[in-house]
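User: Fold this; C-alpha cells only.

Assistant: Input:
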Amino acid sequence: MSKRSRATEISWMLVLGMSCLACVVGRHTAYEAGMREQLPSGWEADANWSVVLVDRDGSILRTVTVRLTSDPGSACWAGNWLKAEVLSVHPSQGRLHSWYIGRAAYATSGAGIQIILSSDYCDADHRLYGKVAREGIFGEHSSDSISGEGENGRFYAVPIHHPNAD
C-alpha cells in the first residue's frame, strides 16, 4: 500500500471516529444535567417505580415495574451500584429484547441516575440514563450489543406509593 493510500485510509478513520464521538457526546442530556444537581428532597431508596419506555415516535414499548433498593448491586462497569429488582414487564414479548429477566442495578450521581435492566449481560444490556426530579425520573433509554449501541427512545418513571401509606 502506498503512503498516500495509507494516509487517506487514516484520514477516513479519523473522520469516522470523530463522527462517532459526536454521536455519543451529549446523548444523555437528562443524566448529564442531573449529575450537576442534588437529589431532590424526598428521594428514597427501597421504593417501587412504574417506568414507561417509549420509542422515538412516542409509542409505548414497555411498562416496567422496578424496585430500587439500598442493597449493594453489581454491574460490568465500575461504580457504586445498588440492586434493582424488576417486578414486572408488560408486554413480556415484543419489540424490545427480553433482557429484563436478568439481574438489574442502578447508580446515582447527584440527581443523575443510571438504571441497567440487564446488568448481567455485559455486552448486551439495556440502560436508562435519566434525571431524578421531584415528580419522578425522566431520560433516555438505549440498548447495547456487540454490534454497537442503538438508542431506543425516552423513558418516564413515577414512584408507586402504597395506598395505605401516610
